[in-house]
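Sorry, any thoughts here?
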Amino acid sequence: MNDARIPGAFLRPGTSSFSDFIAENAPDLLPARRSLPAGSAAELAPHGTTIVAATFPGGLVMAGDRRATMGNVIAQRDIEKVFPADEYSVVGIAGTAGLAVEMVRLFQVELEHYEKIEGSILSLDGKANRLSALIRANLGMAMQGLAVVPMFAGYDLERGIGRIFGYDVTGGRHEEAAFFTVGSGSLFARGALKKLYREDLSQDDAVRVCLQALYDAADDDSATGGPDLTRRIFPVVWVVTDDGAVRLDELRIGELANQVVGARMLRPDGPVAELPGGENTGEDLRA
């Protein structure tokens, strides 16, 4: 007769961290514990870029393009790079796509495990710290070219605002006050956000600004995919407020993407930012 009892490790009181539990009882299941041959493996796996995020009064928007590349080849045109972490937070992935998706799944379980063990939601700073630990554990992979550098953002229930966190490959975290970008197209997207972002953006305008930033990234970075009107492939956009994290409907994003592309037919370089003094030099931000 087979012994079907649950192993004792699952019955003993322990840590509220799921990743710590796995590291103690089944470390071979963690993505970062896999062994690789010597040398760089960067060109062997698809990479995903670009993620942008921006806050607005009462919440934040995070959006990601849909392209994954492997060297100079488009490996996938419709990859998803922005995921819900829990009810009030989202995480976007940049870097090695396969490892990044595994890290996101582990992070999702980590937050759910904490909530079930402790009976309460982890604070936003606590969530950011947990993700930092997961990234740090992947440092060995990063040294062999398989880096994962996500972006984390969520609604702070205690402070009543949206907050954005960025990371480096060592797990070091920093908070961005208004907007942030990661990925190979991040420099171009950040330049667009610098010109278009305002502290008093509405939710709808924050979404439009993020879409404009992704378009600018795709315009100058070959690894970032712009709106694909032929295949109807559009950026993934999540909005997080005190009502929770909600993914915007594909039809709505398609409408906004068509507006952005249509306006670029008239002005390829995009909408004009306001000059000091409040006078706009031409095209409205909403174009």
